[in-house]
Amino acid sequence: MSGYAPSEAARRSGFSLDTLRYYEKIGLLADVERTAGGQRVFTDDDLGWLELFRCLRDTGMPIAQMRRYAQLAREGDHTVDERCALLRTHAVRVEEQMGLLQRQYEHLREKIRYYERLPGPVPEVEQTGTAARSVA
Predict the structure, then answer these.
(1) DSSP 121
(2) Are the C-beta atoms of residues 4 and 12 closer than 8 Å to each other?
(3) Using CA atoms, how far apart are residues 76 and 102, in angstroms rounded to an integer?
(4) Whether this model's pTM surpasses 0.90
(5) Cα-Cα-Cα-Cα dihedral of 122, 128, 132, 133, to 10°?
(6) Greatest extent of the chain over all pairs of C-alpha atoms, in Å
(7) Residue range 74-80: average pLDDT?
(8) 10, CA 20 to 30 Å: which among 64, 120, 122, 126?
């Protein structure tokens, strides 16, 4: 088992040092090891948890649900069904969000096509989205 200094754990996980401290404080990360001098040492297991938390956070799971999942996981195998249900519920929300984003993306693409069909050249600033034009 490898040990990682907080800065290395932050680099590997993509979370800031403040976020790592916060996740430990609220119980998402439990029992983070410490050196004799009190510095936190993250394990491969901790990094695995952080990878999961990154996925859950990036897909919009509220912290309270992340905490509930972590609590259930630490309680043992008898919570597998509840953990799976929690993840399934979240997956449904993610799928709904993806559908919304796809519809909004198509709307954006249609607006771009609209501007591209207008007579005359589209000013350079227009292509970056900073010029003002009618929202037809």
Answers:
(1) P
(2) yes
(3) 38
(4) no
(5) 40
(6) 72
(7) 97
(8) 64
Structure tokens at 84: 């799976």
Question: To which residue do tokens 């754990």 refer?
Answer: 9
b/e string for 76-87 if b means 16 or more Cβ within 10 A?
Answer: eeeeeeebeebb
> Are the C-beta atoms of 15 and 57 separated by less than 8 Å?
no
- The pLDDT, as a whole number, for residue 134 is 52
Structure tokens of 114?
A: 């609209």
The Cα-based distances of 104 to 59, 98, 100, 110, 112 in angstroms read: 17, 10, 6, 10, 12
From residue 53, alpha-carbon distances to 23, 114, 115 in Å are 9, 40, 41
Residues 33-75: tens digit of each pLDDT: 999 999 999 999 999 999 999 999 999 999 999 999 999 999 9
Q: Take residue 56 and report the two structure tokens written for it.
A: 């859950």
